[in-house]
Amino acid sequence: MKTETWSSRTTFLFATISCSVGLGNLWRFPYVAGENGGGAFVLVYLFFVFSIGVPLVMAELAIARRGHASPVATTAAISAEESGHSRWQIIGWMSVLAPLLALGFYSVVGGWSLDYLLQAASGAFVDADADRAGKLFTNVLASPLRMIASFSIMVVSVAIVVGSGLSKGIERIAKFMMPALFALLFSLAIYSNIVGDSARAWDFLFNTDFSKLSANGILIALGQSLFSIAVGTGALLAYGAYLSDDISIPQAAWAIGLADTFAALLAGLVIFPMVFGSGLDAGEGPGLIFVTLPLAFSVMPAGQFVAALFFLLVFLAAFTSGLGMMEPFVSWAEERKTLSRPKAALLTGALVWVLGLAAVFSFNIWKDFTPLDMIEQLRGLTVFSILDYVVSNFMLPFNALLIALMAGWAINSERMRQDIGIKSDFAWRAWQLSTRLLAPTAVTCVFLFNVLD
Question: What is the distance in angstroms between the CA of the first residue and the CA of the last residue of the chain?
């Protein structure tokens, strides 16, 4: 049982929001919105966040607070209490292993942002053309030692903070980094709208033309909405275990959903005015941040300074999300009683580092190594791509589906309502509709689409 609790509701929200506001908001949301019609995609995304995502956040936090233990111990205990068996413990294991695997490749992307922060500060983007911008990223990927250095800094830093514990580590960082992250986002959004093409960016993000949104885009919006707010990632089950009874779970869930959505929209208002103002393509894909934006920075007033601030923002988002990814495994390892928390964090960091090495080599030494060609869905994928595919397309949606089924159907209804703290009958019926029907149906569609595509 966890004996520590969050020092305040504000601190808990800072930590959880900073965990959910990660590269999914700053890196993935802008380019998937760009690829799927802009405003129509955003509207569907918002609908899914508040109709499905927020109710599932409530479910995870309630389950975690009831267990006051690691995701594995919590789900095992509640499963045994509610149904007499431990089948639902699979949620705990998925919530520990999925973020560990995810951090293996996520830390590499975080390392790119750190590398680009240093490049921006040194003036590497000044007067860059398309060829030079492409070569900057190619040079990063082609150098194993360079990538190892940058991602190692992130992994070691995350392990030190998590190993320091809740109050001395995660809380201290969250109190500083979450406000800093939003201050940077807001400042960059103001700057970008002043010097960039703000009219076209706002039209792109908020003018809804559903003719530009395909069925595929709707499923992408659903997946983005769920995992942007950390549903199924293990972070909520880990952080929720430290919740005290006086913190309102519905209020916290709505705050997380609103803050995460605000961050995603702000990221769009940072990136798209720059992109459109420089005559670049908003649907550039994953290269939008690391290839396209340096071109925009090269022609903008104070571009060198702004580029450094932007990649500092990206690194902060990656770092705070990394804390939430490492905590579930550390929490579980610490419960084994054979490891102190610092040693558990050291072990977890070492595992992540080894996974990260394989992900790094996927872009250079092992770029032609595709180890799982015998599996059709994984044919032709490098280690980095396999980790990304398995976690994002299988483990996270499957875990979210199981959480919806456990909360909506397996746990006693009245007990679940008590654990969440929903007082209104209407709100309770809406929550049940979401977790029992909407969420399982929607997540199953995303899961099948990802696996069968």
Answer: 42
